[in-house]
């Protein structure tokens, strides 16, 4: 029979690298058997597998030469028979210090650290002929490859390129037989690895990875170590994982077979895996039961990969999250996210199915359209019962709301163990209505109260089926739209229609978005900008402290916490006259600059502001100092309500407010003007609009502003109760005052809203947006003003509604 041309070709290829036909023949025969005569696998990468196997054979002192000597080139037909079906080396174990054989063909048994490997015969021998298997001894220096890739083409290429010598972390491959007695054919010292190879040509450690025998890893299913199956090995000491050597053809799936397993401990496996694919542990559950780690498999084409530090990865990832996913919370932490993920993983993985079911219900705030006329069900009443002194004679929201037609939906939390999926429990005072699990409703509420002390009125159990998921996500707690973020609850009510307030995230303080530059560092605050030597309450001091300098060495607040009348009147009239006198014009206006037009238009003017400087953490006074008002947050009783004049939602006070009262600050995302325009374009495309508020009161003071310092506030997605305050031309009952607290750098400040006059309970709160209704290019999109003021600047359109 004419010699098989493929066989001849294989001989030639081996000859080219100095391997004789004699040596090639038996190995090739075995390989053909091993691969079910799949020549492609053998020919791949210039016969690398064949060369590998020959070197392995050479290295091994247990080659059964007889089997090979009788073989002939002509035997390479379709009917090659072998005594045993060997394993595919695709899934070989790569263990250092171990002799591994497949059908008499020794797989590599590199050993790196002799000391770490007591050379017992059982440890050295890992006979894997057919179903044979043996225990490996414990080792801290084993390597396992997941064995899905036979060998990388790069290795062969590199073997031929002697010029690719690397000094560090290089793999040194030695001539077969050159150290015939050396079983530990891989030596590793100070990051360099050595294993047998025909020529003394160093290759990279990537090549080393590919040179090693490949292992199949099978998780011990009884121990549920799924991470190992997924290539993510946990270093759970003492755990047993299995390394399997599938018998020929028996495994059609991933090649793993539990029946032919080599047991090694979890920690050994982890070490082996880690050395082959070093893992970078990123996060874990608190007790370390669940861990997230990263590894880069350099066999998949990144020989240049070097393990970065965990800090570098986290930092980079956080930057990416902030930029790519528009996460705006500057306190966002990838670490926290990943740790939470570990916890969730553990929780879901360890809960019984029943618990999981209940958990998934109970952790979602459920809503219900309130049907009960029980006054305790009424959000208005709940608000009243809490701390809102609602004059029912004015509006009678209790009656209105208890009408099922008009009542807004109440999201209420439910304690997981208290109820089943479809129970509906309407909150009723502290009655002891039994609920099916034996808990009284009161007990259930008490349990929940313990979980949510900030919002004790928050309990209601409702039918999950009544609310679609998207509805849930758009819901606000009628009792407290601020979700406990403020010192007082802020209810919402709709007496006009069934609309809900728009979805947004409630934040009590502004948050910085991306590159908006706001430096809160204490080092930024020099001694001149605070009152370090003060004590107690600055307002009682005979000499005004440094913090009063901005207001002409007078404190802006009265001991009652109101803005002093003279200041207030001055600032109110400044704001009201803002259309003319107290305007400044930037040389290069950030607003115009960010429009990206071809030519810069001249600045249209900004209101010149005065500042209130409050004492803060670096000051010597205490937290109750009278020069700290805005930083304490909302204290008035407020309510979000649906206006009847066509302005949408609005904000009103539920109590009388004296003149000069701080109501709230305008909180939102602190954006650069560039981002503001970017959003404007996006929202216009989506048919939405944003109403940003400029922090432009001091733009002219700093000369041409750097882009990251020209800022504004956007409360569209993240904001506080101020986002509901409607505009009123000229005679609004609130005025916005710039208040500096943390930063002495005027480009950022708190925009605080104070009452311009005494306001009665139930009056709507309004402020003048400073909008120019004739400027269609204004950063606030003009609307048909329904403010009702006789000074309305949008008279042409709204004159009929003026009062
Ligand atoms: C900051 S939001 C105020 C809350 C808003 N009404 C809502 O429903 O969410 C500003 C938007 O409210 C509306 N708005 C505010 N003042 C208004 C007024 N005087 N007349 C008509 N619409 C007004 C405009 O649509 C404006 O874009």
UniProtKB/TrEMBL annotation:
Residue ranges, compositional bias (Acidic residues): 75-84
Compositional bias ranges of the Polar residues kind: 119-128, 241-260
Pfam families cross-referenced by the UniProt entry: Pre-SET, SET, WIYLD
Region (Disordered): 65-163, 233-260
CDD domains to which the protein is assigned, alphabetical: SET_SETDB-like
Subcellular location per the Swiss-Prot or TrEMBL entry: Chromosome
Origin superkingdom: Eukaryota
Key words of the record: Chromosome
Annotated Basic and acidic residues bias: 142-151
Every SET domain range: 636-770
InterPro entries recorded: Pre-SET_dom (IPR007728), SET_dom (IPR001214), SET_dom_sf (IPR046341), SUVR4/1/2 (IPR025776), WIYLD_dom_sf (IPR043017), WIYLD_domain (IPR018848)
Listed PROSITE patterns: PRE_SET (PS50867), SAM_MT43_3 (PS51580), SET (PS50280)
SMART domains on file: PreSET (SM00468), SET (SM00317)
Pre-SET domain location: 537-633
Protein name: Inactive histone-lysine N-methyltransferase SUVR2
Organism: Citrullus colocynthis (colocynth)
